[in-house]
Write a structure and sequence with these properties.
The complex is a heterodimer of chains A (about 500) and B (about 325).
Chain A (H helix, E strand, L loop, with lengths): L37 H8 L3 H17 L3 E4 L6 E4 L2 E9 H25 L4 H4 L5 H5 L21 E9 L4 E8 L6 H14 L1 H6 L8 H11 L10 E4 L8 H11 L2 E3 L4 E4 L2 E6 L2 E4 L2 E4 L22 H6 L4 E3 L16 H9 L6 E2 L3 E2 L3 H10 L3 E5 L8 E3 L5 H13 L4 E5 L5 E6 L4 E10 L1 E4 L4 E3 L4 E4 L15 E8 L4
Parallel strand pairs in A: 3-23, 5-13, 6-7, 6-11, 11-12
Antiparallel strand pairs in A: 1-2, 4-5, 4-20, 8-9, 9-10, 14-17, 15-16, 15-17, 18-19, 19-22, 20-21, 22-23
Chain B lengths: L2 H31 L7 H12 L2 H7 L5 H9 L8 H14 L6 H15 L3 H7 L1 H22 L4 H35 L5 H10 L3 H8 L5 H10 L7 H16 L9 H15 L2 H7 L1 H24 L6
The chains are: A alpha+beta (about 500), B mainly alpha (about 325).
C-alpha cells in the first residue's frame, strides 16, 4: 500500500464522486479509499471513461450471446431482458466474510430445525415461544407435510439469505430469508466468468476466493438424498419451462451438474414411483431439484389447474420413493412475519446468541404494532409477508399519498398479511452510469447462497450483489430494474 | 435422453435446414431471373411460393408475385410460418429449451445467428436484393453444422439432429425438383428455346453445378439434373444420400443392424432407400416424375410421424 492513502478526488472515472452521506463500500467517510479496495481503485482511477466503456460493451456482448437474460412480466407479454451487470466489483474483506459465513450457517441450521419441529413434534409451539396462530395462518404452511419424514431430515438444502449493510451502523444484517426456491446463483458464476475475461489483470493483483465449486457441491448434496442405494442416483432439475424468468439459471445449473433438465410433462408417476419419459422408455427418477413452487407441484394435492407439476408427485414423495429439494412447506420459514422470530429460534434450538443482527420488524398481526404502523406508515417499509421479488411492497418515504393510503387500508383489512420495517439506508458501491459516462454511488444488498447437507453448511464466498442502478432507488430486484455486480472475498486481507 | 429433448433436437435441425434451403432457392432464382425477360417472371416466382406450400396466404397478402414481395414473403413475413426469419426464430426457441443438452458453443452460435437475423431491416434488404441476406443464412447454417460436428458428442442427440436435417433436406430437394419440372413442362409450350437456365439455377441452388459437370460432361438436361438430385449416391444434397443419412441415424439410435428394422420409421426408410438405390431415372420418368416425387414426399411425411410416435409421443402409462 502507498504511504499516503488514495483519495477519491483523483481524476479518471471517479472524478467528482460523492458518497452522499451513505456508507460507501469503497470509500470511508473522509473520502479515503478503504484498504481492501486500494489496488482496484488505483487500477480504475487510471482509466478514462472511453476505456471503461469499451470493456463494458465487451461484457454486455458476452451476456447477450450467451442468452443470459431474464423475463419481466409487468408489460403483460413477458419480455426477455439482459440482467444489467456493473463492472465495478463489490469487495468484502475476509475478516468480515468469516463472521458472515458463521452467522449464516447458524441461521440455516436453525431454520432447518424449525421446519423439522413444525412439521414434526411442534415443541416450539407447545413451549409457547411463537404463537401457533402465526403458523397456521401462514399461506405457505402445508398441512400435507405434517409427519412426513423428509430424506436425511433436510428441508433447507438451498437458501438465499439477503443481507444489507445499514449506513447508520456500518454492519451487515439479515433482511430476509429465501428458503423455497431462491434464484440468482447462476449470475454469481457467470458474473465471475465475464469479470475474469474483462479484467484478467485485476485478478492477478488480488487473491479472490473462487466460487465455481457451487454446482459440484449442490450435486453432491442432491446425490446423497437418493432413496436407492443400489444404483447410481437419477437426478433431475424440474423447471416450469422456458417462459419462467429464471429459465436461464435452470438450464445453466442442470448443465453444470450434468443432470437432466425436465418439465412436468416429462415426468409421470406410476405406483408411487416417479419416472421420466426417455427415447428408450420410462426411467426411474430418485431426486428432484425442483424450481417449481409448492402450489404447482402436484395438481392432485395442490392447485388442480397446474400443468407445471406432476400429478401424484406428493404421493411418491410421502412414500419416500423420491427426494425433493428444497422440501415442500418451507415457505413457513421465510414468511416475513416469522422472520421476526428467527433470533428466538436460534436461541431456542441451538442455545446460542444470533451472530447476525436482523432488522427491527413490526408485526401488523399484533395490535400494538399495528397502530404504530398505521400512524407511521409514511416513514416505514411495508411488505406483504408471503411475497418475494420486490412485489407487494411499499417504501413509505418515496411513495405517493394515494399509494400510502391504499396500503394503509390493505394493512388494516388483513393485518396478518403485512409487516413493517424502518427504511434502511443501504450502503452504496460506486457504479458506472453508461448514459452519462460517470461513476455514481448505487445502493446494494448481498445474497449469499447456502447449501446444507444435514451436517454442515457450505457457502460460496461472496454471493450475488444486487445493485439498484436507478439513481437513489433502494429496490435491487431484477424484476424492478436492478442489476448485479461481481462480489469478491479477498483471501487474507483485512 | 428425454423424449422432449430428442423432439427439440429433431426440430432444431429441421428448421435450420429449412431456412438454408429456402435461402438457397431464393437467391439463385432471383439472380437467374435478372437475366430473363419480364413476361416470364410470374411463371418463375409462383413455384417458389408453391414450394413453401403457402399459395393461399401469399395470394391474400399480395396478389400478384414479383421479385420484391416473394423475397419479403419467403424471408421475413411472420405470417409465413416457413419464412427464413420464422425458421431461425423457431430453431432458436428449440435450442433454448435444450440449451443444457447442446454445447455452449452451439447455443451461443445459434443465439447470435438469431440476433443477427432478427435485427436486419427487411426494407433495406429488399432494396439491396436477396444475395447478401441469403449468404448470411447459408453461412449461418454451415457454421451451425460445423460447430455441432466439432463440439457435440456424436450420441443419440446428435443422431436426432442428423435425422432432422437429412429428412428436411430430402423433402426440400424433392419439392424443388417437382415444382421446377412442372414449370419446365409449362415453359416448353410457351417459349421457343429449351430452358436451360432454370435447371442451371436448380443445380446452383443445391450447390451441385460443378458436380454435375464433372459427372456428366454434357449440356444441362432436365433428366440428368433430376437424376443427380434424386439418385446421386454421394452428393450431400441428393435425396438418396439424405435418406441414407436418415437410415444411419435411426439405426444408431435403435442399434439395429442392416437387413432388419426396429420400428415403422426404419421399415419405411429402408424400403425407400432400396428403391432409390435401384431405380433408374428412365424408370422414374416413365412412371411420371411428379407421381414419383409425390409418393416420396408422402413416405417422408410418414417417416417423420413414425419417429414422433416411436420416440417423442408414446403413451407413458398403460
Amino acid at each position: 500500500m502507498s504511504a499516503s492513502p488514495a483519495k477519491m478526488t483523483q481524476s479518471g472515472i471517479f472524478a467528482g464522486y460523492n458518497t452522499g452521506g451513505f456508507y460507501d463500500e469503497m470509500f470511508a467517510a473522509d473520502g479515503e479509499v478503504r484498504p481492501h479496495y486500494a489496488k482496484l481503485f488505483q487500477k480504475f482511477a487510471s482509466m478514462v471513461p472511453a476505456q471503461f466503456e469499451e470493456r463494458r460493451k465487451l461484457a454486455d456482448l458476452s451476456f447477450l450471446l450467451q442468452g443470459i437474460t431474464f423475463t419481466v412480466y409487468s408489460d403483460g407479454q413477458g419480455t426477455e431482458r439482459l440482467f444489467p451487470f456493473d463492472l465495478i466489483p463489490r469487495i468484502l474483506p475476509y475478516s468480515e466474510w468469516e463472521r458472515v459465513d458463521r452467522g449464516l450457517s447458524q441461521r440455516v441450521v436453525a431454520l432447518n430445525l424449525f421446519l423439522q419441529d413444525i412439521y414434526g413434534p411442534q415443541r416450539i409451539l407447545k413451549d409457547r415461544r411463537i404463537p401457533a396462530a402465526l403458523i397456521y395462518s401462514c399461506k405457505h404452511f402445508r398441512r400435507e407435510m405434517i409427519g412426513v419424514e423428509v430424506p436425511r431430515g433436510i428441508y433447507t438444502h438451498i437458501c438465499g439469505i439477503d443481507l444489507v449493510r445499514d449506513s447508520k451502523t456500518g454492519e451487515l444484517c439479515v433482511l430476509e430469508d429465501n428458503v423455497r426456491t431462491p434464484s440468482g446463483v447462476s449470475y454469481v458464476l457467470e458474473n465471475r466468468l465475464v469479470m475474469t475475461r474483462t479484467f484478467p489483470d485485476a485478478f492477478q493483483q488480488h487473491e479472490v476466493l473462487p466460487v465455481n465449486h457451487y454446482p459440484a457441491e449442490l450435486s453432491r448434496i442432491l446425490r446423497s438424498l437418493s432413496p436407492r442405494t443400489d444404483s447410481e442416483a437419477q437426478i433431475v432439475l424440474l423447471t416450469p419451462g422456458i417462459y419462467n424468468s429464471a429459465y436461464f439459471e435452470h438450464s445453466f445449473l442442470a448443465q453444470q451438474m450434468g443432470v437432466e433438465l425436465v418439465e412436468g410433462r416429462d415426468l409421470v408417476v406410476d405406483g408411487e414411483i416417479v419416472y421420466m419419459k426417455t427415447i428408450y422408455g420410462l426411467k426411474r427418477v430418485d431426486v428432484i431439484y425442483r424450481r417449481v413452487d409448492d402450489e404447482f407441484l402436484d395438481s392432485l394435492t395442490f392447485r388442480g389447474d397446474s400443468i407445471l407439476g406432476v400429478p401424484g408427485l406428493m404421493g411418491a414423495y410421502r412414500a419416500g420413493n423420491v427426494a425433493l429439494a428444497n422440501a415442500v412447506g418451507n415457505g413457513i420459514a421465510d414468511d416475513k412475519a416469522i422472520y421476526a422470530y428467527v433470533p428466538e429460534f436460534i436461541k431456542y434450538y441451538l442455545g446460542e446468541d444470533p451472530i447476525l443482527r436482523t432488522v427491527e420488524t413490526y408485526l401488523c398481526a399484533r395490535p400494538d404494532h399495528l397502530s404504530h404502523v398505521v400512524e407511521n406508515i409514511h416513514n416505514l417499509v411495508v411488505k406483504a409477508v408471503g411475497e418475494s421479488g420486490g412485489y407487494g411492497m411499499l417504501i413509505g418515504p418515496s411513495s405517493t399519498r394515494a399509494r400510502i393510503d391504499e396500503f394503509r387500508e390493505a394493512v388494516k383489512a388483513d393485518p396478518r398479511n403485512y409487516i413493517a420495517q424502518p427504511v434502511i439506508p443501504l450502503s452504496r458501491v460506486p457504479s458506472y452510469d453508461p448514459v452519462n459516462e460517470t461513476v455514481s454511488g448505487c445502493h446494494v444488498d448481498l445474497r449469499p447462497y447456502c447449501l446444507y447437507d444435514g451436517q454442515k453448511v457450505t457457502i460460496v464466498p461472496g454471493g450475488l450483489t444486487r445493485v439498484a442502478l436507478q439513481s437513489g432507488s433502494l429496490v435491487v430486484n431484477s424484476s424492478q430494474g436492478g442489476g448485479s455486480k461481481d462480489t469478491w472475498v479477498l483471501r487474507g486481507e483485512n | 435422453m428425454l423424449s422432449r429433448i430428442a423432439d427439440s433436437m429433431f426440430w432444431l435441425a429441421r428448421y435450420i435446414e429449412r431456412a438454408e434451403d429456402t435461402a438457397r432457392i431464393l437467391d439463385v432464382t432471383y439472380h437467374t431471373l435478372l437475366e430473363q425477360s419480364q413476361n416470364s417472371y410470374r411463371l418463375r416466382w409462383d413455384p417458389l411460393i408453391a414450394m413453401a406450400g403457402e399459395e393461399n396466404r401469399f395470394q391474400q397478402l399480395y396478389g400478384e408475385a414479383n421479385a420484391q414481395n416473394v423475397f419479403e414473403f419467403l424471408a421475413f413475413r411472420q405470417e409465413n410460418p416457413s419464412s427464413i426469419v420464422e425458421c431461425i426464430t423457431k430453431a432458436r426457441e428449440n435450442a433454448r429449451t435444450i440449451r443444457d443438452r447442446i454445447s455452449r458453443e452451439m447455443w451461443e452460435d445459434i443465439n447470435g445467428f438469431y440476433f443477427s437475423v432478427s435485427r436486419v431491416n427487411p426494407q433495406e434488404e429488399i432494396e439491396t436484393g436477396p444475395h447478401r441476406f441469403c449468404e448470411k443464412i447459408k453461412f449461418g447454417s454451415h457454421r451451425f453444422h460445423g460447430v455441432t460436428d466439432a463440439t457435440l458428442p456424436h450420441d443419440e442427440g446428435w443422431e436426432f439432429l442428423r435425422i432432422g436435417w437429412s429428412l428436411e433436406r430430402a423433402e426440400m430437394t424433392a419439392r424443388l425438383v417437382d415444382v421446377q419440372y412442372h414449370n419446365l413442362l409449362d415453359a416448353h409450350s410457351t417459349l421457343d428455346a429449351p430452358d436451360n437456365h432454370q435447371w442451371m439455377a436448380v443445380l446452383k441452388s443445391v450447390g451441385a453445378y460443378e458436380t454435375y459437370h464433372r459427372q456428366y460432361h454434357s449440356p444441362i438436361e432436365a433428366e440428368r439434373v433430376a437424376e443427380m438430385l434424386i439418385l446421386h449416391p454421394q452428393h450431400p444434397r441428393s435425396i438418396r444420400f439424405s435418406i441414407g443419412e436418415v437410415q444411419a441415424g435411426l439405426r444408431a439410435i435403435s442399434h439395429t443392424t442392416a437387413g432388419s428394422y426396429a420400428n415403422e420409421a426404419e421399415r419405411l426408410t429402408g424400403k425407400l432407400l432400396e428403391s432409390l438405390r435401384y431405380d433408374t431415372i428412365d424408370e422414374i420418368f416413365k412412371r411420371g416424375l411428379h407421381g414419383y416425387l409425390s409418393d416420396l414426399l408422402r413416405v417422408c411425411g410418414s417417416i417423420g410421424e413414425d419417429i414422433a410416435r416411436t420416440y417423442f409421443y408414446y403413451s407413458a402409462v398403460a
